UniProtKB/TrEMBL annotation:
Catalytic activity: glycyl-[protein] + reduced [flavodoxin] + S-adenosyl-L-methionine = glycin-2-yl radical-[protein] + semiquinone [flavodoxin] + 5'-deoxyadenosine + L-methionine + H(+)
Organism of derivation: Halolactibacillus halophilus
Catalytic activity, EC: 1.97.1.-
Protein task: Activation of anaerobic ribonucleoside-triphosphate reductase under anaerobic conditions by generation of an organic free radical, using S-adenosylmethionine and reduced flavodoxin as cosubstrates to produce 5'-deoxy-adenosine.
Gene (name only): pflA
Keyword Oxidoreductase among UniProt keywords: yes
Cofactors required: [4Fe-4S] cluster
Origin: domain of life: Bacteria
Protein name: Anaerobic ribonucleoside-triphosphate reductase-activating protein
Pfam families referenced in this protein's UniProt entry, alphabetically: Fer4_12
One Gene Ontology molecular-function label: metal ion binding
PROSITE patterns noted in UniProt: RADICAL_ACTIVATING (PS01087)
Length: 161
């Protein structure tokens, strides 16, 4: 697919962005601007580089030992294109986690591309990072308000998957 997305970075073999070894896609663009964000350079959609969906998928699949984490920025900022990346990676058998400053409820209310992207993900880590609730002892999340949600348990997403 020739559509391009803005990607800040792709990191292989991460052990902090979900269970096991993961390839992390850091997408550019974020509307949340969380104080204390660990990746504020990702807020600007113009940062990073343009990559086609094919190039992103090929890069992820070049490392067959890893599962995938969609991060950023916020991958839902570019949901209309990221959904195609997630769909192809899911078809390739990848377990997919997504991080978002939106809550699950907000994403379901937005519907459309947001819900379709969710339907290809296995887990959502939702909610903005809140500096006052930061806790370094938490697994796979930065603040207590964030939730790790198994999406297979969400009936609204089963229709699209």
């Amino acid at each position: 697919m020739s559509e391009s997305l803005r990607v800040l970075n792709i990191i292989h073999d991460s052990v902090v962005d979900g269970p096991g070894l993961r390839t992390v896609l850091f997408f550019s663009g974020c509307p949340h601007f969380c104080k204390g964000c660990h990746n504020p350079e990702s807020w600007n959609i113009r940062n990073g580089s343009e990559m086609t969906i094919d190039a992103i998928v090929d890069e992820v699949l070049s490392n067959p030992l890893t599962d995938v984490t969609l991060s950023g920025g916020d991958p839902f900022f570019q949901a209309s294109g990221v959904k195609y990346v997630a769909k192809r990676l899911k078809e390739a058998g990848k377990n997919i986690w997504a991080y978002s400053g939106y809550t699950l409820e907000q994403l379901l209310e937005l519907g459309g591309d947001y819900t379709e992207l969710l339907s290809y993900c296995d887990v959502l880590v939702d909610g903005p990072f809140i500096l006052a609730e930061r806790d370094l002892s938490l697994d796979f999340r930065g603040s207590h308000n964030q939730r790790i949600i198994q999406l297979k348990d969400i009936p609204e997403l089963q229709v699209q998957a």
